[in-house]
Each structure stands twice: as structure tokens, then as C-alpha cells.
Design goal:
The chain is built from 11 helices and 20 strands. With 380 residues, the chain is of the alpha/beta class. The chain has 2 domains: 219 residues, TIM Barrel (Alpha-Beta Barrel); 124 residues, Lyase, Ornithine Decarboxylase, Chain A, domain 1 (Beta Barrel), CATH 2.40.37. The strands form 4 sheets. Strands 8-7-6-5-4-3-2-9 form an 8-stranded parallel beta sheet. The chain has a 5-stranded mixed beta sheet with strand order 19-18-10-1-20. The protein has a 5-stranded antiparallel beta sheet with strand order 11-14-17-16-15, with no helix packed on it. Helix 5 links the parallel strand 4 and strand 5. It is elongated and about 75 Å long. The two termini are 22 Å apart. Belongs to the alanine racemase family.
Length: 380
């Protein structure tokens, strides 16, 4: 069998375990954290959730993970079968799946008492004994997605969970909406609201997890950070770029590479791609790359810089669904590498730069890299 990752698609995402471990340890040290909830939802931001979970558990002593859905949680549970490896389900969940959650030790975020009441009835109606469902109580301090808005709402959930054998309290949290931008006043309001609610009910701080990535990076001296809940920084990028800078030495976990599968010469006056938006002013060499927006290289990246043999070249014309054209300073061999983001010699294209060019964010770019792009582990 051909083990060349480029043989079928002509592109691959290379991921580094060493960089992932470095970033986990670096952000924990920076935030003075004792516990990390590693956010590996959306296939670990496109990097590979099973891979990331295995690496972080085995090499960074991380045993708390967060995903978005029950199915994501079940996938991770396959590689982390031990109960000590806790898997949090962020966001609203379908209560009808509660027995699946309990059976597989998946701990849902819960935002209202009605969900808990329905969950209790379903758990008690189960034909087989189930372990207590571990739950994380959400407080809505300004994100507007889910959670208790008042102390009374939080108190009703908290007292119910503490008084029911079907449940076990695993956490209490909120999510900051402006941790990675300049709206400090809104951040301060959310922080004050959270602290007021949990302290009024005398909820033990060991349950709190309030520091998301932006908080761990930029507000670590303003809030409790014994437990941090981090996503983007794990993968080596600054979620606040370009509005906020960080000197933290994060290492990009992923490099996106493609190959040139065709080389030809454009004659002066000839155009390329849909809309004929690029016309050659003189004879020039170009390469065809078997990669397009269906693979996660967005149409908005048309005109973006790529790296070929350590030299900056450009995407010419519009990126199409499955292919794109790049400029060449001279003819190159078939299968020459094209770096879409990553390092090539002295030149570098960061995921932040690529996302900014496409008027997007790194999260969206990484999670959009398609399933027909293989993930390749660079190191163990």
C-alpha cells in the first residue's frame, strides 16, 4: 500500500505532538494553572481529536477534555477508556441521550432545571443500573447561549444536583464573550456576575472553571485560574490576533502542505480560473495544485501568498472547489511542495495571517479543512 499522504489528494495536514505538548505546558505555566481542560471539539480544531487526546493524556498528564457533542465524546472515549479521563460536553445537549452520557461517563453542561428534571426521570427509568451523571452547571453572564441568568436559577440547579443520587456535580462555569478583544468593561461585568453567583451560594472553588483561552492568555491575573479551559492556544495560535499581541512562545501544531501536480506556461493575455479575474501580462509559468475550497482552502484566499522552495508565490485567479493555480518564478518538478501555512526555509505563513487575509479567524480555517485531507503525525 502506498503510504505517501499526497498520493490520493495532493495535500495533507501535518501535526506535531511535540508542539501540542509544549503549548499545553506553556499555557498552564503562564496562567499558573493546576488543571487543564483541553478543548478538543470539532476534531481538535481540525487536528484530530483522538490523536490530540492520546498525546495530551500520555505526554502532558492532561485528564480533562471538552467536546461539543455526544458523538465527539464517544469517539474520544474509545481512546481514553479510563473513568479518570473526564470528558465534558460543552453546549446544549439532547436530554434523550442522557443514558448514553451516563453509560460512557460523558459530563454534559446543563443550563436549566427543566433539563435536569427530564434527565432524572430518564435515568431512573433505565433498565440497567447507571453511574451518577456528572454535570457542569452553566451560568450565562453575557454570552447569551445557555445557563442560569440569576442566583435563583443557579441555586435551583445546584440544590437539585446536590440532593439527587442520579447526579454528581463536576463543575460550574461561564464563558467570556470578550476575553480576546478590547472590551474590558464587558469582561469585568461577566467576571463580577460569575463570582457573585458562586460565592453567594458558597459553591466550592474546586468546581469553578472560568478561564477560557483568551482569559488564560490575557486575564490570568484577574480571575481564578486553578483550572483553565483552553482550545486555540493548544494548537499554537493567538485567538486575539491582530488586535492583541502575546509574547507567549506558542508553537504551531499544524502545517498545511499541498503538491504541484501540473506545470504549464501562460501566454501574455491568457486568463486563469472562473471569471477570468487574473490575466497574464507576460508569458509566465504557473502550477496547478489539486486543492480547493471543498478542502478548506477558502475562495477568499484567492490572491494569497504561498511558499514554494522557500520563495513567496501567489494564488492566481479564483480558488475553485478542487483546484487552484499558483505563480512560479520558473518551471518546477511535479510534486514540488506548496506550503499553505507553515515554515519553508526562512519564510513563514502563519494561520493567523492566512485567516486575516481571508477575513476569517484561525478557528474557522482549521475546522474547515476537509475530511479528504489526511492528517499526518510528524512526530510521536
Amino acid at each position: 500500500m502506498n503510504d505517501d499522504p499526497f498520493s490520493r489528494r495532493g495535500a495533507a495536514l501535518f501535526v506535531s505532538a511535540a508542539a501540542l505538548v509544549h503549548n499545553a505546558k506553556t499555557i498552564m505555566t503562564h496562567a499558573k494553572a493546576k488543571r487543564l481542560i483541553a478543548v478538543i471539539k470539532a476534531n481538535a480544531y481540525g487536528h484530530g481529536a483522538k490523536w490530540a487526546a492520546t498525546v495530551l493524556a500520555g505526554q502532558a498528564d492532561v485528564h480533562d477534555f471538552a467536546v461539543a457533542t455526544v458523538d465527539e465524546g464517544l469517539d474520544v472515549r474509545q481512546v481514553l477508556p479510563e473513568r479518570r479521563d473526564q470528558i465534558v460536553l460543552l453546549g446544549v445537549q439532547n436530554v434523550n441521550l442522557v443514558t448514553v452520557m451516563a453509560e460512557n461517563y460523558l459530563a454534559p453542561a446543563v443550563g436549566n432545571l427543566d433539563w435536569l428534571l427530564a434527565a432524572r426521570d430518564l435515568l431512573q427509568a433505565s433498565d440497567s443500573p447507571l453511574p451518577p451523571l456528572r454535570v457542569h452547571l452553566a451560568i450565562d453572564t453575557g454570552m447569551g447561549r445557555m445557563g442560569a441568568k440569576t442566583k435563583a436559577e443557579l441555586s435551583s440547579m445546584y440544590q437539585f444536583v446536590m440532593g439527587e443520587d442520579a447526579f454528581e456535580l463536576a463543575g460550574v462555569f461561564t464563558h467570556f464573550a470578550t476575553a480576546d478583544d478590547q472590551n474590558q468593561a464587558y469582561y469585568d461585568q461577566q467576571k463580577a456576575d460569575f463570582l457573585a453567583q458562586v460565592t453567594a451560594l458558597d459553591i466550592d472553588p474546586k468546581y469553578w472553571h472560568v478561564a477560557n483561552t483568551g482569559s488564560a492568555l490575557f486575564h490570568f491575573d484577574e480571575i481564578p485560574t486553578e483550572t483553565i479551559r483552553v482550545g486555540s492556544a493548544l494548537y499554537g495560535y493567538n485567538p486575539a490576533y491582530p488586535s492583541k499581541k502575546t509574547d507567549l512562545p506558542l508553537q504551531p501544531v499544524a502545517t498545511f502542505k499541498a503538491r504541484i501536480w501540473g506545470v504549464h506556461q501562460l501566454l501574455a493575455g491568457e486568463a486563469v480560473s472562473y471569471g477570468a479575474t487574473y490575466v497574464a501580462h507576460e508569458n509566465q509559468w504557473v502550477g496547478t495544485v489539486p486543492l480547493g475550497y471543498a478542502d478548506g482552502y477558502h475562495r477568499t484566499f484567492s490572491g494569497m501568498t504561498v511558499l514554494i522552495n522557500g520563495r513567496k508565490e501567489r494564488v492566481l485567479g479564483r480558488v475553485t472547489m478542487d483546484q487552484m493555480i499558483v505563480s512560479l518564478s520558473k518551471p518546477v518538478p511535479i510534486n514540488t511542495d506548496v506550503i499553505l501555512f507553515g515554515q519553508d526555509g526562512q519564510e513563514k505563513i502563519s494561520i493567523e495571517e492566512l485567516a486575516e487575509y481571508g477575513q476569517s479567524i484561525p478557528h474557522e480555517v482549521l475546522t474547515g479543512i476537509g475530511s479528504r485531507i489526511p492528517r499526518v503525525i510528524e512526530d510521536k
